[in-house]
Design goal:
InterPro entries: Homeodomain-like_sf, HTH-like, HTH_AraC, HTH_AraC-typ_CS. This protein is of the alpha+beta class and about 260 residues long. Helices cover about 50% and strands about 20% of the residues. It has two domains: about 150 residues, Jelly Rolls (Sandwich); about 100 residues, Arc Repressor Mutant, subunit A (Orthogonal Bundle), CATH 1.10.10.60. Strand 3 and strand 4 form a beta hairpin.
């Protein structure tokens, strides 16, 4: 129905507001805290907050935030997935905090949305509807896939207590020197058996599981501290900054230094 893009907004003009229609705040950069009824949280890139009509929307900028402020209506459409009961027009547990995991696809959609201003009103309106429906369907598909994967993992974990023990041990020792061969041996498993059983339970190898935790911690330290790469490597269980840089670039598709420069505000 209507859309405005706010670039690096330092504060909201009103700390709380009510709207006669549905509104969505879709974040491209920065973050803000929100509360709608009993539901509260923080929205960052990859998130959008949906607020129903006539509902008090409290919000406060956490860091300068760039976001799409969209007024919209809902029209039910057939969907083959399991989220029909969560359609915003009928879900009693609103507001909705939407989260997209495919950041590249989301960024691409936002890029096209920014270019709609060049078009005529009628064409712009049609494409706005298209991109909003695309965002909603992307969310639903990601949600269904994640839910299905979670159920599968839960089932597999229940069938293999040894892998639960292995995952717990890895979580406790992730940022130290880890010998996966010894961990497998402690469970009376050969390296191949251990890797296969772990992948069956968690959908990933023990090494990739360990690496994911280390890279996640490296991301946090890159953004929240002034540590050098060598210092971060030591905190994440790597021998040196060179090896961390190689693993980070392989997993994230970007070097640690460039990641820090691009994501820090």
């Amino acid at each position: 129905m209507h859309a405005v893009f706010w670039h690096r907004k330092a504060k909201f003009q009103l700390k709380q507001d009510q709207y006669p229609d549905w509104v969505m705040f879709a974040v491209e950069e920065g973050s803000f805290h929100y509360r709608i009824g009993e539901v509260a949280g923080t929205a960052v890139f990859g998130d959008a907050i949906l607020c129903p009509p006539g509902t008090l929307f409290e919000r406060e900028v956490a860091e300068p935030v760039s976001f799409h402020f969209i007024t919209l209506g809902w029209q039910a459409q057939p969907y083959a997935g399991s989220l029909d009961q969560h359609h915003p027009s009928g879900d009693p547990e609103l507001p909705v905090h939407l989260t997209w995991t495919d950041g590249n696809r989301l960024s691409s959609t936002y890029l096209y949305i920014h270019q709609l201003g060049r078009l005529q009103d009628e064409q712009r309106s049609l494409l706005w509807n298209h991109y909003l429906q695309d965002l909603w369907q992307q969310y639903r598909v990601e949600h269904d896939l994640a839910k299905s994967e979670h159920r599968q993992q839960q089932k597999q974990r229940q069938l293999d207590p040894a892998m639960l023990k292995a995952a717990g041990w890895l979580q406790q020792h992730a940022f130290k020197q880890v010998a996966l061969r010894e961990l497998g041996a402690s469970l009376d498993l050969s390296p191949v058996q251990f890797s296969r059983k772990f992948q069956a339970a968690y959908g990933t190898t023990p090494m990739d599981y360990l690496t994911a935790m280390r890279i996640q911690k490296a991301q946090t330290l890159l953004l929240e501290t002034e540590m050098t790469l060598e210092q971060i490597a030591e905190r994440c269980g790597y021998e040196n900054g060179f090896y961390l840089s190689r693993m980070f670039s392989k997993k994230k598709g970007i070097s640690p230094s460039l990641y820090r420069n691009m994501h820090r505000v």
